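User: My collaborator sent over this chain with a note saying "see what the structure looks like." That's all I know about it. Can you take a look?
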Amino acid sequence: MQLIVILLIMVSVLALLSGFAVFLGSSKGSRAHAFSFLVTTIGVFGWSLSMGIFLTLGEDATTFAQIPIFGIYLFTLVMDLFVLIYTGWKVKWSIIPIVISALASLFLGGILIYNPNLLYDSFTLSASGNSVAVRLDWYYISYIALMLFEGISVISCILSRIKHTTSRNIKRGWTGFLICLGIGWAAAGIFDLYLPLFRYDLIWIGPLFIAIDFVIHYYAILKYHLLDLSSSWLKVLSHIIVMSLAAIIYLTLFFVIFIALFKVPSPSSAVIILNVVMILIVLLMFPALNELSNYFRSLSSMKEIDLVYFIKKIRQMSRNYINYRELADFLSDHLHFQYVGLIIDKKLYGSKQTKLSNAEITHIANFRTPMKGVWLAVDDATSAELKKNGIEAIAILRDGTGDVVGKILLGRPMGNISFRNRDVSAIETALTLTASAISSEKGPKN
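Assistant: Without extra context I'll predict from the sequence alone. Here is the result:
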């Protein structure tokens, strides 16, 4: 049960983070719609948290137990009402089931707080498992009927959305939500409404499925643009969600392996706390480790250029003062040439020293710029002199607007690879990006 409760709460936290990501990342025009999704995920989180608290209460917590029991059933009302508002947004006829559901939820919620004995006769807190003796009376039947009514209304709203949109992506997004929500609600109906009349220990299955469903729907919102999202908060919270998902997967595997190896019901609290601390440390280190991994991958890809990493680093360089010699070193390492030299304003900035004279550098700088392409054709005498200095090609640094900012000297490719075996189009793309970075740089030059 310990593992189940931890997973239940962690997955519900993911759903809650998804709600905040959508709300904080929404544009002004979709803020109200996104708010209904946020409140839905708050309902999922409150439902799951209340259930996790109740299932782990000790036998001496009888005076407190009623609070999480209220949470289980009240947050369900909140969740189901607002998922109806979310799916019925701008569906004209949905106002009718929304009003009915709102009034019914207020009525059933108020009665539960006023007289909880209408829902259950008693609750049990024991080492073998906590449970609630639910009464199959008019209140619980009305509660189930409201859940069924809201479920049918939500399905109808989603089907209406699918029918009246011409976008294939939006159809796919809402169809996926419909399928996942159908599975989740089927699980909730069985394990949270029907089975609690006979056994209460499986009640956690419903919220686990529902929470996973909303995390998946968050992915669909991003992928299929179901809502208009634009804020920078979206990137931050999405990163947190991905890291949290990694933590959940790790913790699940840890529990399974620990129980299998040591043949115990569950690890001790000290072991769990240690693992949580280690997860946090690894997640905090993850950005640095990811950057280091990308750096070494770019260095080791001798036959090709890691353009994703290259673009990222060039963009970072273009925001600040550019040291041309450092730029030449970077280009040598990540374009995979033994030598790279930048000729800018008739000055040479190389990744290492060469024996080119000032006269030769000036001669190269004065080469006529070709109308098309980036590669310079040089005479035999100049080509022979360049090869003596380990230079095999000269290219024009022309930015995206066509302006020439300089020339670049390229040495022999690394890894005993011939120039013809290199991806020339990728090199040309990298040179254009380099020229754009130099063109945008406004600080003093070395």
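A starting point for your reply to your collaborator: The radius of gyration is 31 Å.
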